[in-house]
Fold this sequence. Notes:
This protein is α/β, with parallel strands linked by helices and 441 residues long. Helix content is 34%, strand content 22%.
Amino acid sequence: MTNKPKVFIKTFGCQMNVNDSEYIIGQLVKLGYSITEDISKSNLILLNTCCVRAKVEQKIYSLIGKIKKIKENNPNVILGICGCMAQKEKENIFERAPYVDFIFSPSQVNNLEEIINAIRYGNKKYISCENTPEFSFNHVPVKRESKISAWIQIMRGCNNYCSYCVVPYTRGPEQSRGVSEILSEVNNLAQNKYKEMFLLGQNVNSYGNDLSQSATFSKLLELLNNINGIERIRFTTSHPKDFSFDLIKTIKSCNKICNHIHLPIQSGSNKILKMMNRKYDIDYYKNIIKEIRNNIDNIAITTDVMVGFPGETEDDFMDTLRAFKEIEFDEAYTFIYSNRVNAIASLLPDQVPLKLKKERLWRLIELQKDISTKINKKLEGMIVGVLVDKKSKKNIANQFSGRTGTNKTVVFTSKQDLLGELVKVKIIKSSPWTLYGELIE
Ligand code: SAM
Ligand code: SF4
């Protein structure tokens, strides 16, 4: 009996990349590969990359450099680079690292069989970075990491061209998957006992704008809400400009949609928002938050924010701090602005020095920590519904964790294996990032 070839895959970046890797692995398993976590034992090494910030890109190039030694020791090992950095860098990767064997873009993820065969039998460098005319995962095998919660990409690409962002250049224009394809996938997952659907898109609430049939994000949510067996529906990332009142009504009326909305603010300064090409001002943003909170009970709101965009003065940064104090997000993903070659903000004057960017980041993180502490403290003594999705990482006996509908992590103990169950937990203690509780029998 021959040994199965082994693939080592490392994924960088967002949930979309994680889901792309699930499709990549599904196809490789079908082609006879098994997965290894030991890079030195692999026959195929795949890096699924990200390039949103310069630092990640440098880290990936440095990893590619380290893999050179593995290839020198064993020239039969195949090295492939995919994901956003592959699309952005294309042939530059071959120039910097001539030992890389193949490169493919996110839109070519479901063409892996063709790509691997070209490399196995063609004995030449291979690059596949064309955008495809439609977005579909029909009949593409997938090997999901979780048996409880499933990522579902409902659309890909972005038409927004925020001035700092490379995504429209790496993931191409917005393309929505057909409604019937998504419904059939979710029905299938429900039959396989999945409890939670996590809908993904760079701009998830503009779903359907490019489809000829009259499909909207709200309509899709309503259809998914009717699928038996599914208990929770989540989605990310919403753009404020597409957050309609109709969507707020849908979230309120669909019992399976979780009460958590992730709505990137990016900055609290109107001047910076304009330069970012975000297509809203701060009053518009605050008004959406007000409508959401007035209409949906117990809703958690989280955000993405950036400090140090070119031209950001102390006053602009103070506007961001003020917006944070006023809105009180449950949690914020905070980023230091990073210059990206394709994005036009890299051409702007008045780049903010790194030291100042770091100072601003820490001030913002400290403020958000106080806000999250205050919000989570109020949950002490309350009973919350938790979908249990993990056993303790630290191997603490009987410790489990899961998430509330508001997407907060709750840690508790149980003698019974509760993975995949929806349970009630009483919150005993809180921190800015985690809640600790006792299972209610
Ligand atoms: N589509 C989503 C949106 O509209 O916000 C998010 C996609 S983006 C990959 C995730 C986050 O990365 C953004 O919300 C932004 O805060 C951050 N980001 C994007 N480009 C960046 C850059 N050049 N420097 C720093 N952070 C960046
Ligand atoms: Fe990037 Fe803006 Fe598109 Fe989000 S909406 S992916 S930040 S261009």
